[in-house]
């Protein structure tokens, strides 16, 4: 798989992660780490720097709070 293709799939396919070991499946990755996926693994499968993982998490939480009408 070409890296450019993989980056596009990470953004567009909600079940795709860049991990052959987990059959490129987020669901398989979650099965492997039922208590939470370590940040370094998240960074690898999403093809982002590890120091960006927490930032992306914060963005998701903020968006969800807005959609649910919950204030921090």
Keywords:
single chain; 4 helices; 0% strand; 72 residues; 57% helix
Which helices and strands, and how do they pair?
Elements: H1 3-12, H2 26-32, H3 39-46, H4 53-68
Task: Please characterize this protein's 3D structure.
The protein is an all-alpha fold and 72 residues long. The chain has one domain. The protein has four helices and no strands. The longest helix is centred in the last third of the chain and has 16 residues. The protein is globular.
Q: Summary?
A:
The chain is mainly α and 72 residues long. It has helices at residues 3-12, 26-32, 39-46, 53-68.
Q: Which range best describes the helical content: under 10%, 10-25%, 25-40%, 40-55%, 55-70% or over 70%?
A: 55-70%
Radius of gyration, taken over Cα atoms and rounded to an integer in Å = 13 Å
Major sheet details:
none
Low-confidence stretches: none
The figure for the number of domains is 1
The global form is: globular
* Number of E-state strands: 0
The average pLDDT value, as a whole number, equals 94
Secondary-structure element order, as H and E? HHHH
């Amino acid at each position: 798989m070409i890296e450019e293709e993989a980056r596009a799939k990470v953004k567009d396919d909600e079940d795709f992660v860049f991990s052959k070991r987990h059959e490129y499946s987020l669901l398989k990755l979650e099965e492997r780490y039922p208590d939470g996926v370590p940040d370094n693994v998240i960074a690898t499968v999403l093809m982002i720097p590890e120091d960006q993982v927490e930032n992306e998490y914060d963005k998701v939480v903020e968006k969800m709070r807005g959609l649910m009408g919950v204030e921090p």
